[in-house]
């Protein structure tokens, strides 16, 4: 199983969320502890995890944390090799790249973007 990230916006006055921009970031569930410890985020699967504008800074923080303190996070790597620091770094970079693309495309839409994990 894996985490897939998307950005969504809520339709006004409706219980409907539409995907906006494109985020193809995906990583194995095996890195959950690495993600939560490096970002400080709860990481709620199958859920809206808040506004991207609030989540992305924590993803950036997590990326820096993994790069700067790699040895500290080795203990969270999966023993079977499915879930490494390198994979998580790539995952974080993919999220950040997708966010920057959405911002460049439409700042107003990005302002309303919600961070979904599925």
Low-confidence runs (pLDDT<50, min 5 residues)?
none
Largest sheet: 5 strands, antiparallel
| Helical content class | 40-55%
Bin the strand percentage.
15-25%
Inertia-based shape? elongated
Helix/strand-derived category reads: alpha+beta
Number of strands: 5
Could you tell me the radius of gyration in angstroms?
14 Å
* Overall residue-averaged pLDDT value: 96
The string of secondary-structure elements, in order, is EEEHEHHHHE
Query: How many domains comprise the coordinates?
Result: 1
Number of helical stretches of at least 4 residues: 5
Question: What distinguishing features does this structure have?
Answer:
alpha+beta, elongated
Structure description:
- The structure is a single chain.
- With 118 residues, this protein is α+β, with helices and mostly antiparallel strands.
- It has one domain (2-117).
- Helix content is 47%, strand content 21%.
- Strands 1, 2, 3, 4 and 5 form a five-stranded antiparallel β-sheet that branches.
- Strand 1 and strand 2 form a beta hairpin.
- The termini are close together.
- The mean pLDDT is 96.
Q: What's the topology here?
A:
Layout: E1 2-10, E2 17-20, E3 26-28, H1 32-39, E4 47-51, H2 52-68, H3 70-73, H4 85-105, H5 107-112, E5 114-117
Antiparallel strand pairs: 1-2, 1-3, 1-5, 4-5
Helix pairs in contact: 1-2, 2-4
Provide a compact summary of the structure.
The chain has 118 residues and is an alpha+beta fold. It has helices at residues 32-39, 52-68, 70-73, 85-105, 107-112, and strands at residues 2-10, 17-20, 26-28, 47-51, 114-117. The chain is elongated and about 45 Å long.
